[in-house]
Amino acid sequence: MPANCHVTPQNAKAPAIVEVNTLSEDDQAINPADHYGVTPDYSIQVNGRNTIYSNEYIESKYMYEMNHCDVDHQAKEVKITPRKYQYNFRTKRQVQRTGVMLVGWGGNNGSTVTGAIIANRDKITWMRKEKVIVLWTANTERYTDVRPGLNTTKEEVLQSIADNDDEISPSNIFACAAILENCPYINGSPQNTLVPGIIELAEKHNVFIGGDDFKSGQTKLKSVLADFLVSAGLKLESIVSYNHLGNNDGKNLSAPQQFRSKEISKSNVVDDMVGANHLLYDKKTNEHPDHVVVIKYVPFVKDSKRAMDEYISSIFMNGINTIAIHNTCEDSLLASPLIIDLVILTELMTRITYSTNDNEEYQTFEAVLSILSYLLKAPLVPSGTPVINALFKQHRCITNIFSACAGIAMDTDMLLEHKTKLPKPMKVQL
Ligand SMILES: NC(=O)c1ccc[n+]([C@@H]2O[C@H](COP(=O)([O-])OP(=O)(O)OC[C@H]3O[C@@H](n4cnc5c(N)ncnc54)[C@H](O)[C@@H]3O)[C@@H](O)[C@H]2O)c1
Which of 154, 212, 213, 266 is catalytic? Predict the structure, then answer.
């Protein structure tokens, strides 16, 4: 603990030390946050006491603050207690040579990703790969059954594969093989590949898995628009999403069982936003907007997918507000950048470990990589944890975790420097 630190008596037992002397007069200019002229070849260095650089790691100390909420229904009282938890994040600096194994490589998305990478060929080396990430961009499968004896534990699923059980899908086999080879596995399609037994297998082997279904167009817009409408008090009553497309994916999705997989992954996207707003929607009656998804195969339009959406909301004085959207775009041009981002994010997560105030041993994040939710339609999350679909929350989750890993302040959007008289900056150390 630095000699000039002041520890307040009520915090005497807390592991964190805050409140120190202020910076010199010379150091007090407000950062103009002007990135003009900064190109990707610039290096970034964090100049803070909570961030330590070594040849191998960037280490940061980070105080995670969370509000603990106690509801006493009898007393009609809500008590909020701010709590603090100390984390030490460690990020390996050496980016691993990473190969990606695309299941469905010869298809629309696989070939588009390959084309994009070949365009960058001079900067990419495929030799001596150290880490391989396996990503399913093959066709959508039907849902498999989930039942005891088949795939609810890791032992069951491995035994069912050994028995060549009919309910084991090709993607189940790819996922298990990837996990057993210590390779992260990402499911870019909607089917339920990541059944409980496979999740358990990934947790046991400490291998990252992520899914389901690339969030490329219509669903991405829906997660923004529904969040806006519901949080603005414009009660969403009906969402109807109609698509037609003429590529091989469209043909495959015209089969009822495969369509059902897509329908499920597209349908849950507004659930958390509706569920969180008990002022608009009655929880007791499970009130929620009507939500219908239609997908039709029209060969003539080929890869140029059309998405038409109608959003109807009840507004002030029982008025009705209808928004209609028509979107046309090449399907694989939306999905391929997501594939690259999923691989980059997953590779980075394999280099991050953390310790906490009550466990000094460094460990990895949970095997179910929910940080990928921003890029996926039906985010898979660790059991018992909330599914977040609101797009900007998902985006903030990524930027905040990486800010914490770098030991820098999160962007709170308060901009107090423009709204108050900013005091002298203080040197703060955890
Ligand atoms: N915007 C998008 O393109 C988008 C968005 C979300 C999800 N997806 C999903 O991504 C997947 C791929 O889309 P696409 O347009 O590239 O499809 P595609 O039909 O063009 O390509 C799929 C490829 O997978 C191969 N394949 C099928 N089963 C396989 C298996 N068991 N093992 C290995 N390869 C197999 C096929 O031969 C084909 O080459 C689909 O499931 C689709 O629903 C796409």
Answer: 213
Q: Mutate which of 102, 103, 105, 109 to test ligand 1's pocket (most atoms within 8 Å of Cβ)?
A: 109
Q: What is the pTM of this model?
A: 0.85
- Considering the domain architecture, whether residues 18 and 53 belong to the same structural domain is answered as yes
Domain containing 18 equals 4-92
The average pLDDT across 313-330 equals: 95
With beta carbons less than 8 A apart as the criterion, state whether 121 and 150 touch: no
State the first-to-last Cα distance of the chain, in angstroms, to the nearest integer.
Answer: 9
Q: Alpha-carbon distance 386 to 380, whole Å?
A: 10
Same domain, 317 and 361: no
End residue of a domain, out of 299, 330, 361: 330
Q: How many domains does the chain have?
A: 3
Atom index in ligand 1 nearest the CA of residue 191 equals 41
* Annotation says 262 is catalytic: yes
Q: How far is the CA of 106 from the centre of ligand 1 (A)?
A: 9
- How open is the CA angle 70-74-78, to the nearest 5 degrees? 30
CB 376 within 8 A of CB 210: yes
Does 324 lie in the same domain as 241?
yes
Answer yes or no: 213 catalytic: yes
Choose among 260, 114, 150, 138: nearest CA to 187.
138
153 and 289 together in one domain? no
Identify whether residues 38 and 135 lie together within a single domain: no
Asked whether the beta carbons of 187 and 175 are under 8 A apart, the reply is: yes
Ligand 1 center to residue 292 CA distance, Å? 23
Q: How far apart are CA 60 and CA 403, in angstroms?
A: 10
Give me the half-sphere count of Cα atoms (radius 13 Å) on the Cβ side of residue 291: 17
The 3-state DSSP composition of the chain as helix, strand, coil percent (nearest 5) reads: 35, 25, 40
Structure confidence by residue, pLDDT tens digits, 330-379: 988 999 999 999 999 999 999 999 999 899 999 999 999 999 999 999 99
377 carries an active-site annotation: yes
- pLDDT tens digits for range 142-178: 999 999 999 999 999 999 999 999 999 999 999 999 9
Question: For residue 290, is the peptide bond before it cis, meaning its omega torsion is within 30 degrees of 0?
Answer: no
Q: What is the chain's Cα-based Rg?
A: 24
By most ligand atoms within 8 Å of CB, the mutation choice from 249, 257, 302, 377 for ligand 1 is 249
User: Of 306, 330, 354, which marks where a domain is finished?
Assistant: 330
Report the amino acid identity of residue 128: R
Q: Residue 199 in contact with residue 224, Cβ under 8 Å?
A: no
pLDDT of residue 208: 98
103 occurs within a structural domain: no
